[in-house]
Structures are given as structure tokens and as C-alpha cells.
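User: C-alpha cells for this one?
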Amino acid sequence: MQTQGNYLVTQQVSQFIEKYPYFSTTHEDDGSLALKGVLGFEGDFKGRIIQDEFDLELHIPSTYPSEMPIVKEIGFRIPRDFHINPHDNSLCLAAPVAVKLIFSEEKTLLGFVDNLVVPFFYNYLHQQKYGSLIFGELSHGPEGVLEFYKHYFQEDENSTVVNLLKILATDNYRGYSKCPCDSGKNLRNCHGRQLLRCMLVQKTAEFRIEYLSIRAFLSDTGKKG
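Assistant:
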């Protein structure tokens, strides 16, 4: 009997293969699904059209869509130092919560690939061809996560970002509390909307890990946190 979760995956895989037909599927022993094949695409930024294809492997966990697919470029065209996770050779598509926020806008496998994987490859190819990354580049590890939150919250001070992240890490959102950015406004009228969006896509324990790792990074580097 096919469960609702399996039916969802089956539907989304069919939709994906309709657009990207050069993929085969394999059911893994752990309940995950592996898709392997060639991802051909065309990207356009300010008239800079780039067409290419990459050999790709997608692992859809049994807990999908609660957990994101894992993506690997298996043709070894991408240098291992270009945002490739060293522990499993998967693509580091963006900061973890950024991936979840983008995915939440279109929660399908096709949306995941079109909105996260294709831009990753286009960004890399744009750098190779034109010498720049159009989507920017975050540092690796906790520093990169901190850079994402600074951009997301539109705050330059490390201490402000750490205090906002602490709210998420301690599950202590109170709309009537003063916002830690020192605007003088209550959270609900300041950074509350950004915080609530994050709370919808990531667990408190995951925010806690990010918060502690950023605090440790700032302490180790002597930067004000």
C-alpha cells in the first residue's frame, strides 16, 4: 500500500523527470530514493545566457520534505573547494536556513532543483566565464552562516545578529519584547517577521547549534559577538 508520503514523492519525481528526462531512480534500503542522471539547463542573468549540463545524484530522504534532498555533482567538474561539503561531497547550496526558506516557497523536488541547484551551477559557470559570482559567496562554516544572517536581518553588527539568533535558539520569541537591534520597537514591529519565517522552517535545536557555533567562531577570532 502506498502511503501519502510515498505518493507525494512519486508525484514530485514524475514532475521532475518530465522536465529532466535523463534520470533513473533507485530505491535504497533505508527508504530513501536516489536519482542519478544528467541535468541540462539554461540560465540567464542580464542577457548572459549559459547552457550546460552536469552529472548529478540526488538523494531524497525517507523523511522528505521535512529533510532536504542531498545533491552531489558526480562528474567532478566542480572543484572540491567550491562549496562542496568535505564530509560527503554534497553541494553546499546555501546556508541551511536559507535553503529551507527558499524551498518553502515551492515545496517540490522540481522547485528545489530549479530554485537552488540550477542557480548553484549557473553561479559557478558565471564565475568561470565572467570572473564573478552573481549570487555572492558566503564563507565556509559558522562564518558563512553569520554572513547569511547579517544579510537576512539587514544588520551589520555581529552582536545584534547573535542576539536575534539567540531568540531562535532559545525559542524565546515574544512579540511585545524590545527588539535587540536597539530600534526601540517591539519585536513584532521590527525583526519579528524575519524571526517568525525562520521558526516555520527550522527547529530550535538547529538554531541552537548555529548560535553556539557562531559564538565559538567569534570568540576564537576575537571578533565582537
